[in-house]
Amino acid sequence: MSRLSYVILFTPQMDRMRQFYRYGLGLPVREDGAEWATFGTEGATLALHAMPDLGRKGIQVRFEEPDIEGRVRQLESRGVRIEGGIQSLARGQVASFWDPEGCLISLHQPGQPEEEPGGSDRQLSVVIINAQDLRGTRAFYRDVVGFQATIDSPWWVQFDTGPAALALHPRVERPEREAHHAGPITVGFATEDFHAWVEEMQARGILTSGPKDEGFGLRAEATDPDGNALAFSEAAARSSLEDELAEEFEEDLAPARAPIRKPFKKGSKAVSRIVVGLGNTTAKPTRRTAGKKPRVRATKGVASARGGGPAGSRVKPKRTADPKRARAKPAIGRLKKAERRTIARQKQAVAGASKGKPVKRAAARMGRR
Questions:
Q1: What whole-number distance in Å separates Cα of residue 345 and Cα of residue 351?
Q2: Of the candidates 190, 122, 133, which has an alpha carbon nearest to the alpha carbon of residue 157?
Q3: Which of 8-17, 125-134, 240-249 has the lowest mean pLDDT?
Q4: pLDDT exceeds cutoff 50 at 281
Q5: Judging by beta carbons within 10 Å of its beta carbon (0-12, 13-18, 19+), is residue 113 exposed, middle or buried?
Q6: Which tens digits make up the pLDDT trace of 121-149?
Q7: Contact 220, 207 (CB under 8 A)
Q8: pLDDT at 10 over 90
């Protein structure tokens, strides 16, 4: 997977842009040079590159690649034109190309492993390409570049590019509502302390819109001195270890098997059974049932399967008086009929014996008189 590692702003006014991002937005500075400056942002690193040529002013999105030569051969075989081939720089090798929207994309293989940015509460969370042809741009990044889409809708396409995501959105001309979608690229920032950060930027006069909620959470907008669109939002709450474990347990669809033993009865055989959950209970069609609709029988409340509760009991027992006791199924078939015949014979024997007693016979004779 290619990780979105850098968002580089080529600017002809290096000092003014450095002051804006350092003191206006309050981003911590990691490197500060005359032609190159980086800021400590999580997700991806925001960088400034001095570019006196106004024609080359813009944004470059850079992805980290472990094998840049193999990646370039793959892209060239799919019709992508690499600008100037693979170039060797002080920080490693770089190859650049243009996407259908005219955005400059580069692949970077560092000379030595680079640590992922961290240690800051400011996160560069997303780079949004506001596409005039969303369908064609989506096909380019998905089929040609090979990114996997995690969200694919008519208004938002997001690719799996690491902690910082690459997203596509249709370019719209609605400056009164979504000014950041009217330009070619939007750089999105997120933080957990959203309200405090917005108040700081409002006090400095940085924001051009917001904060407002349009159904996707609170968002605010700003524009840097070069006219690049910036969007700010609240970072999603990080899930705890308990939530992650619970989520994995809920998604576990493996059948649950638990051995149980039928309660012992005098004269019965010791039998063990296996309760299988989440199995396929659909019967295979036979010659008699083939082509016919299955009959659906109305069922009343049925107790849950045994073996899932404590001490091998039912999860929902038949009786609430003793929830830990494993209830046995009632006898069915020939066993049930045998029990009924035995009970009937016992009643007949008791009735016959009672009629033969002297008191009963005398009472019967008096009744006939």
A1: 10
A2: 133
A3: 240-249
A4: no
A5: exposed
A6: 788 999 999 998 999 999 999 999 999 99
A7: yes
A8: yes
160 within 8 A of 147, measured Cβ to Cβ:
yes
Q: What length is written for the chain?
A: 369
What pLDDT is stored for residue 151 in this prediction? 92
Buried b (16+ CB within 10 A) or exposed e, 3-38: bbbbbbbbbebbeebbebbbebbebeebeeeeeebb
Of the two residues 50 and 328, the one the predictor is more confident about is: 50
User: 343-349 long-range contacts, Cβ below 8 Å, gap at least 24?
Assistant: none
Q: Is 334 exposed, middle or buried (0-12, 13-18, 19+ CB in 10 A)?
A: exposed
73 has pLDDT over 90: yes
Q: Average pLDDT, stretch 275-302?
A: 52
Sheet holding 83-89, edge to edge: 29-32, 36-39, 45-50, 3-11, 58-64, 104-110, 92-98, 83-89
Give the whole-angstrom CA distance, residue 125 versus residue 102: 22
Average confidence (pLDDT) over 100-129: 82
Task: Give the separation between CA 316 and CA 305, rounded to whole angstroms.
Answer: 8
Q: Are 105 and 61 in contact (CB under 8 A)?
A: yes
pTM assigned to the model? 0.62
